[in-house]
Amino acid sequence: MNTTVQLNRNGMRILLAAAALAITLPANAAAPSPPQEQSAPATQGILYRRAVEAAIWGMPIVSVDAMREAFFRDAHAHYNDIVYWSRPADWMNQTTTPNSSTLYVYFNFNLKDGPVVFDLPPSNGAATFGSLLDAWQEPLTDVGTSGQDAGKGARYLLLPPGFSGEAPAGYIPVHSSTLNGYALIRVIPKTLTGPDVASALASIREQRVYPLVQAANPPKQRHIDMAGKLFDGIVRYDETFYTRLARMVNEEPVASRDLVAMNQLRSVGIEKGSAFAPSTATQSILRAAVGEAHEEFIDTMRDNRKLWWPGAHWGVGGQGVATKTGFTFQTADYLDVDERGAIYYLAYAPPVKLGKASFYLTEWHDASGQKLRGERTYRLRVPPNVPARQFWAVTVYDVNSAGFIEHSPRVNLDSYDTDAQRNADGSIDLYFGSQPPSGKASNWIYIAPGKEWFAVFRFYGPEPAIFDHSWALADPVRQ
């Protein structure tokens, strides 16, 4: 990073010197052409700076494109097909901070050819919690038990940008400002036993997605089970980041709030209606730039959280503009692209109303304040009476990808785990390490040597004790 920063400084010095020279020349005099060895660093400096900002600005839509590619490539799905997981996710669900306790439903839609219907059945036998989102990952509406249908089921009508007609009766209209969008829905069985899971799966298979023009006779719905199969929607922080960004910029309408960003993208070689074909030298600069943006995302989500309990490092991010604006990140005065970029490194598919159906805390440090590392071992004591009506879970992620650690034999421990050993007072000791402690395999979560990791503690159906801080969780203790 130091070399790159020096490059930026050199480039800025050259630009300032050129500007000063132009000011001092007579009006009829031509400014001399800068030597080639000076103009190249100046140009590279501009490219680098603009590329860093482009990565920060474009993080939400790049993540959407990575997920959409996994939808097409790994699930062999098409728009309006429904992908689901018939059992809680393992490491092969390579997406951004998924849980490993519920059943997931995911689909992509495209409104280029007109409105699309999402037909959601009532939440019978299994709670349903999810959102419909646009290509910028702005939640358009929440669905299911805590959504507009309040668990009674409904037909949601997704409307394309600029739609000005009247939605037909019998639908909940959902206006989108982008052509692409997606849904992520969690289906939560009462237990993970056979009958409850079977009921949840039956509910999933009743969900349907189809064009409005086919509402009178909807096509047969494709449901694609990805349990036990690789689904890789993780963003790569290399030059391919900008290929994704260019693709999404070309597919989506430009909002007035983004006109300055669209102009800056031209310095990177991204322009609407034009092919993106960076040279080998440019690709090298782009790799360095997105690497810096990635580091900024990590630093922001690790160090700029609201700590939840005194003396502990558990905290919650996105407590600024994100929650105040319903994850649009747009205030009357500015668009907070910095917070938005960092959040979508760590999260995917935020709800309109955060904290009503679920609440999450993240942990990046041990009790001594050191970063969590995979070559060490830790113990976390979960006190009794966790304030979660439905379930609680502790899940581990790779800091670099914000996804499950690849090839992990166990990514999660939750209140569904009846095999977990409990202490006499009802508390549970969890162990993190590359190997389970002797006699404690049922209470163990894998971490990988050589990797930094973080944990998420999820409360589904959060109760007042989490918000009034009367229930507290200590940091992991290094063993």
From TrEMBL:
Q: Which SUPFAM superfamilies match?
A: VPA0735-like
Please provide the record's keywords in A-Z order: Signal
Q: What is the residue range of the signal peptide feature?
A: 1-29
Protein name per UniProt:
Uncharacterized protein
Source domain of life: Bacteria
* Domain DUF1254: residue ranges: 80-205
Ranges for domain DUF1214? 358-463
